[in-house]
Design brief:
With about 280 residues, the protein is α/β, with parallel strands linked by helices. Helices cover about 45% and strands about 20% of the residues. The chain has a six-stranded parallel sheet. Strand 9, helix 9 (about 220-230) and strand 10 form a beta-alpha-beta unit. The mean pLDDT is about 95.
Amino acid sequence: MILNQIYIDELIKRALLEDINYIDTTTDYLIPEEQQGSADFLAKSDGVLCGMEVALRVFQLLQPDVKCEVYKNDGDSLKKGEIFAKIHGKTRTILKGERTALNLIQHMSGIATATNEAVKIVEGTNASIADTRKTLPGLRPIQKYAVTVGGGRNHRYNLSDAAMLKDNHIDAGGGIENAVKTLKKRLGHMTKVELEVRNLDELHQALNAGVDVIMLDNMSCEMMKEAVEITAGRALLEASGGITNETLRAVAETGVDIISIGALTHSVKAFDISLKIEK
């Protein structure tokens, strides 16, 4: 996934306006405008870096001629205590952009790190790790980008990307057969259909309806194994619902093709990074 520069700039500008409003009371009254300084980005734990260019863009928008030294790039591993980038510019610029830059890079690196941990857990199985639409409003592009940096894959980006029938759609649309038939009459040949099933009876209905992807919702590993045998490659199988790192390997070993994890974006822990000004 590639980030759109216009989106990134608008996101940063909104964040800066939210944080600074009309003045940085501390910095503007304490630090002379002409004072120059340097600061180091420091990793305070082990993980995967993500959002380096986004973080640096914060300072570039505040001061176009700010200088940056980058020692690590997105997707690189970080070790606790490692300095991975340095910025040189006005001290006011560094202090005013610090929190916005850290908020973004910490969140993105947290997602990349958590995704990478999940990817490593399922190594050697058929399963790939995917995100969901359970993202924070306004942050979906950077969150889904961070998942790919961590080695995961993106599920549909939004409701326009594919047809996905969940339980409420099925119940409101007159059941599996009717809902799929109605959709297929109107969909273009490039649009895939995914359907969520809660049991093996619904799995059989989904296969008979000819959907492309079947989501196995909150099923036990035993039931998922049976679903894999029944499906026999006729559709992609996606496991979803309450999957954690503790249960992830067992789910992957059932033979499913995809494991989607909402927690990668909706409740991930920020990666600990600090920005230290040189005295």
